[in-house]
Amino acid sequence: MLMVNVLPFVVLAVLVVGAEPSNEDSESDGTWKRDRRTADVGSQFFVGGSRPMNLPGVDKTDVKQKEIVQTVDNDPTPYFVSLFDFNRNIPFYSAYTVTSANSKKGKDPNVATLKKNIKWRNPVPSLDVSYSAVFEIVKDKVGAQLTRGHLNPAGINDFSAKFWKATYTLSNAAPQYKELNEGQWVNFETLVRNYAKKCGNTDRQGTLYLLSGTSNTGLEPGTSTTDPVQKRIDLPHDKVDWKTYITGNLPFIPRAFWIAGCCLWEEPRWSSWPRLSRLFPSVQRAESFATMANNHNDKNFFHQVQMRVSILQTLLTKPNAASVSLFPGNGGICGQNHIELK
């Protein structure tokens, strides 16, 4: 009788062990294919672990597009991730978070020391040289100055010297005109940093999920936050024939930059009744925001505007293409409650 009772469990154990995938297996979440051994690395930077869907140009079969888990020095800790396009030598986006614990920290004093000697890390052979080349072209042909524009901003990460340093990699940057980078764009990044404290405060203890990206689509003057369809425009860069000058490994100059954020937190269903609160799961809440700006050397052409995440998604969606979804995880909760940062 003992053998009869034990045998089914032995068979079941063999089946379970035999079902374990090999190290060479891979899986896809519908957006990006990754090795199964590292499938979860970086997922914490996306709502529900789900990557953005249907962004123009993103092709999961293109071997020259790669999700880079951003680390620093010899520390294997993933600080954020960037979807980098080696065809254009700029990222599609960087995804990062500010947790409740991090939002409560002040500025790490070690950041001031790092600023004196910070050097950009170079993930692509000779990309630093290519940046210098495109900078010279723009300066010569347009009379304007480009910068290495952070997607995941250093300032939002200055609660930790390592987080701050991790942002200084060219796989987290795209050529951005100095006027935008040091003007309206950095002002909005400051608003995001301040909001992160509200998202992570004692009452909410939320996590702020952020995406910063590049686009080949710009904005017309007076772009509406409610009706983007007629305001979608492909902006030419004045005075420069980019097909002539931007060749080889030179980093592509995006026509626009965008940011989308979503604060997620949990609220008890029965906060006044502790016993009931333990019996019933909490409710997930969300607030979201977005902005977009033209990458230009004249502030009169920035046309930067705050908008709903859904509006930004519409602006990023190419005509007759599948709709872009920046935060597809958790049932799309991040598109349900728009706020404007002030």
Characterise the protein shown here:
The chain has ten helices and 13 strands. Strands 3-4-5-8-11-12-13 form a seven-stranded antiparallel sheet, sandwiched between helices. The protein has a two-stranded antiparallel ribbon with strand order 1-2. It has helices at 2-18, 100-103, 110-117, 127-141, 161-166, 178-181, 184-199, 242-245, 274-279, 309-316, and strands at 26-28, 33-35, 65-72, 75-85, 90-98, 146-150, 173-177, 207-215, 218-219, 232-233, 256-267, 283-294, 305-307. The model is unreliable at 1-38 and 228-241 (pLDDT under 50). It is 26% helix and 25% strand. 36% of the residues are buried. The protein is α+β, with helices and mostly antiparallel strands. A hairpin with a 4-residue loop joins strand 1 (26-28) and strand 2 (33-35). It starts with a helix and ends in a 26-residue tail after the last helix. It has a single domain (41-54, 68-335), classed as Extracellular Endonuclease, subunit A (Extracellular Endonuclease, Chain A).
Whole-number mean pLDDT:
82
Report the portion of residues in β strands.
15-25%
What would the CATH topology be? Extracellular Endonuclease, Chain A
Tell me which CATH architecture applies here: 3-Layer(aba) Sandwich
How many domains, as an integer? 1
Given the structure, what is the number of helices? 10
Key attributes of the depicted protein:
alpha+beta; single chain; seven-stranded antiparallel sheet; 342 residues; 26% helix
